[in-house]
Every structure is written in C-alpha cells, then in structure tokens.
Design a protein that fits this description.
Order of helices and strands: EEHHEEEHEHHEHHEE
Largest sheet: 5 strands, mixed
Number of strands: 9
CATH superfamily: CAP
CATH topology: Pathogenesis-related Protein p14a
Number of domains: 1
Protein name: SCP domain-containing protein
Strand order of the largest sheet: 2-7-9-8-6
CATH architecture: 3-Layer(aba) Sandwich
Helix content: 25-40%
Keywords: Signal
Distance between the termini: 77 Å
Pfam family, one: CAP
Structural class: alpha+beta
InterPro entries: CAP_dom, CAP_sf
Shape: globular
Amino acid sequence: MRWKYMLWAGLAIASTTAATAAPGDFEGDVLDELNALRADPRGYARVVAQTRERYDGDILRGRYDDEIDIQTREGVAALDEAVAALRVARPVATLKHGEILARAAADHVAAQSRSGEVGHRSRGRGPGERVVARGGGRYVGEVITYGHSDPVTVIEQLLVDDGVPGRGHRFAVLEARYRYAGAACGRHSVHRTMCVIMLSETADGSPPPPPKRPAARPN
C-alpha cells in the first residue's frame, strides 16, 4: 500500500543580509535534468505534460513503486499551468557544479535525514549560513523537494510548485542570473527521500561581480 503525503517544497533566498567534491550519479542526473530544462524550457514542457496521466483527482501517483503518492492542493490545474508557462519561457544559461554549494546542501540532507524535519533550517543554520560554514558566501538560493526518488520528478515538483501562490521554486530554477548549482539527495525519515539544490551566481556563493558599466562615449 502506498503512503500519501502532502506536497512540500521549500524555497529560500539568502542575499546581502542574509559531502562530496563532485556530484554522485543521482545528484548528477538531477543537475542534468535541471540543465535540460534551462536549455530548452519549451521542449521540457512535453516531459512535464506526460505527468498528467498520473493524476487521480487531487492525488499524484508516484512514477515508480518506491515513490510516494502525493496529496496535492491544486490537482492537475497546477500542472497545466506549469506546462503553459514552460511553452513560452526562454532558454537560460546552464549551470556548472559548485563544490561548496554541494557540500552545504549535503550538510542539510545529513541533518534532516535523521531529524525528519523539513524546511531550510537545520542545526540552527539557514542556506547562507551553511555555505559560509563551508567557506563560501551568503549569496545563494535553495530549493528542496521531498518524496521523490527520480530526477525527473524532482524537477517536476519544483516546476509545478503545487500550493505555492507565487511559484517561487519555478522562478528560481529558471532564474537567468544563476550560473552554478550544487545538489545533494538522500533518505528522509518521514518522506523517504529529499533533494536539496543550492543555486548561486558564483561557484561558492561569494558576492557576484558588479555589473559592467557601458563605456563612456567620446564627446
């Protein structure tokens, strides 16, 4: 018998106020999916649209036997909205792996895998604080999914963003200014699995360089 959980995905942005050296196979596949989305949002819309057949009313059936069924808040309407948004979205730069970002993400997975908590804080630290503890900076964004054991469904949950009025996760994964990402995924004591993706304009979350000023025109 499958278990049913409420859909939860977290988003946090740390600004000026606020595991492993390389991605493993699963984390690497998650980043590949994320880059496939960013390189061709309109093409990726076709991938997301296929999920429609897994809806049973407000229940989203797991893609595989080891994935939980999810009690959605909006049903298939949120999926249809995501597909429509992707069909008009423009491609953005693909992301390079950031080692410090991945290590900070892995710290969060390690803590919550034992505690069973959800959200962006673990051991008293938020996303930016975790990156700083790893030697980086606070200029990072973070998205989290729970309950998915397949890279495609990880990205789909962020895109559909069920129950999140502003669709902040969708905007985060399609944000053009991001150039680096670090992912960590693992077991979760309540939702079986979790996946954390940290995003930044720089490889280590350090302040991005100031925008270049246009050259002055000669008089």
